Amino acid sequence: MEPVVDGRGLALARDTGPEIDVARLRVALARLSRRLRRHELAGLTPTQLAALATIGKTGPMRLGDLAAAEGIAPSTLTRLVTALEDIGYVQRTADPSDARASTLAITAHGQEALERIRTETTLMLTASLELLTPEQRSVLAAALPVLEQLADAQGAVGRLPHLL
Fold it and tell me: pTM here?
């Protein structure tokens, strides 16, 4: 299903329920996302961190699979993986089934960095939630399944340009 857009090319919410100010939602999600990434990222760019998290979640994977999962061009992938190797967060090994391919695995050092970043982010978000009233926290808790659905729908819609 194609998104409905206005005359400026901006996506609009379909008229199937309560009106949602899509622009406000986009800005709020972008600002929250930036706040969650503002902590010390263990010397990583957001793209490197996303790739490291993907490798950590899926286990050892081929370079091509990582490029596809993250939507990264091969030239960018090479620099990204080299940087992660240099820091000691991933280890690249030859793929035993294909000598032309490499497999990436997260190292113990990389796993520790991911856990530290997740802990820092969780603590920051927990502190932010304390600023909300109990009613606001209830509304947010009720919205979680919908936000998760929106996050999962990204793959079905395809990659959106980074306009945030």
Answer: 0.69
